[in-house]
Design brief:
This protein is an alpha/beta fold. The protein has a single domain, classed as Alkaline Phosphatase, subunit A. The N terminus is likely disordered. It binds zinc ion.
Length: 450
């Protein structure tokens, strides 16, 4: 949708100069694999540094465990049930959706996007509101199938080249890096070997990670979780300096932007016996993501431990720009010195999957099967406390057998989920009838289509 409204003015007299804004989304970046979220030392050093003079959100929850619906939620501040982008590759973002880029553009921002994953390209209307939408990806070949993607070096180069030729300020730049998404084939990564005595996984004939290695993830000669995890960490190590280079390059050009970095979803590394995959459930391994905020002017850093939703990203950037969020936006500005918003109590945060729904309320996580909830049956529930991580060495703790203290809250959570379902019962995905030429093959290599 195109907005005709003019720029809002912050206060009386001279309009305040609006800040440049940089939104970085990293595909498949699981929070607890970064050092600042308890991951291995040194992994994601530059990414973590973004929060050191800003804010690190310890529990950020994506609206879906899958790329397209999650990214659409970031851009529209709507849950997938409302914006209509589902896990189906033929769903797309409706033209009447109101996006962050449209809202900033209407207020005078120059808007540009550099993406590196074909599932969020122009053919699915993810370009809504962008003056520049750069989806130039390299044709690559894997197992004799052609596909496209763009690595971090090329993505950062393209974005910097755009900025260097004089992007008119204020600007909003969205950069989506693809690297940690499988297959884990980081440029220049060292050879990996299976450690002796490690669990050896079977190779699945499909893209499912159920009990084995998804077909699209298979790397020659390795079969164990530690070897694949090492290759995943190599992707983060490869990406990290390019994030730093992008931010430093933009800082050097003009007014340093305010930077928000997050991910669209995590990745399973054996949770519930799923390996090297996402999109099959709404476990915290898949929906907990990093969220780091670097203001345009450095300040003392802080950490926010209560859960927040990625629906809050768009309202946050608008607030920092001095703009009102459209009434359609469901999120709210994050609690930051720069938004002037304090933590104002708990609210339920949802994440949805075609078959399963999760709610996080306070520090309680609760998930259940969508169908059994609709039919008022009891089945397949999971829940538990999420814990703020007090020490760097602490690991993610989450789902287990449902403890008594959660059972006491189940009635409330059930009602919350039922209300969410009622709200969205009549949803209809916006679907196109077929995919553009070559898209089926390209999406299959990345595991999006069988
Ligand atoms: Zn993704």
């Amino acid at each position: 949708m195109t907005l005709a409204l003019g720029a809002a003015v912050a206060g009386c007299g001279e309009p305040a100069k609006r800040p440049n804004l940089l939104l970085i989304t990293v595909d498949t970046l699981r929070a607890d694999r970064l050092e600042c979220y308890g991951g291995p030392p040194g992994v994601g050093r530059a990414i973590c540094a973004l929060g050191e003079h800003g804010t690190r959100f310890q529990w950020a929850i994506s609206a879906a465990p899958y790329t397209a619906p999650s990214i659409a939620s970031i851009l529209t501040s709507q849950y997938p049930a409302t914006h209509g982008v589902t896990q189906s590759a033929i769903s797309y973002l409706r033209q009447n959706a109101i996006t962050l880029a449209e809202t900033l553009g209407a207020a005078g921002y120059t808007t540009a996007a550099f993406i590196s994953n074909p599932v969020i390209d122009r053919s699915r209307s993810f370009d809504q509101g962008f003056d520049v939408f750069d989806q130039r990806m390299r044709q690559r070949e894997r197992n004799r199938a052609r596909y496209v993607e763009r690595n971090a070096q090329a993505t950062a180069n393209s974005a910097l080249a755009w900025a260097q030729v004089g992007a008119r300020e204020p600007w909003f730049l969205w950069v989506h890096f693809q690297d940690p998404h499988g297959p884990y084939d980081a440029p220049g990564a060292a050879q990996t070997r299976d450690p002796p005595n490690a669990l050896r996984l079977k190779v699945n004939s499909t893209h499912s990670g159920d009990g084995g290695i998804p077909r699209y993830q298979v790397l020659p000669g390795i079969f164990t979780p530690p070897a694949y995890e090492a290759r995943y960490l190599d992707e983060i190590r490869y990406l990290d300096p390019h994030v730093e280079r992008l931010v430093q390059g933009l800082d050097a050009l003009g007014d340093p932007p305010a930077v928000l970095l997050t991910s669209d979803h995590g990745e399973a590394f054996g949770e519930d016996d799923f390996y090297f995959a996402h999109g099959h459930s709404v476990g915290l391994d898949q929906i907990r993501v990093p969220l780091l905020w670097r203001p345009s002017r450095p300040r003392e850093g802080n950490v926010v431990t209560h859960p927040v939703s990625l629906l809050d990203v768009a309202p946050t950037l608008l607030r920092v720009a001095g703009l009102e969020a459209p009434t359609e936006f469901r999120g709210r500005p994050l609690p930051l010195a720069e938004t002037g918003v304090a933590h104002d109590g708990e609210r339920p945060i949802f994440s949805e999957h075609d078959h399963r729904l999760a709610v996080i309320s306070g520090d309680t996580y609760y998930a259940r099967d969508r169908r059994t909830l609709e039919n008022d049956e009891r089945d397949s529930i999971s829940g538990g406390r999420i814990r703020p991580l007090p020490r760097r060495s602490a690991r993610l703790r989450e789902v287990g057998p449902l403890p008594d203290y959660v059972l006491e809250e189940v009635a409330v959570l059930e009602k919350t989920l039922a209300e969410y379902l009622d709200d969205t019962r009549f949803r209809q995905a916006a679907r196109r009838t077929d995919l553009p030429d070559g898209a089926r093959e390209a999406l299959s290599v990345l595991g999006y289509l069988e």
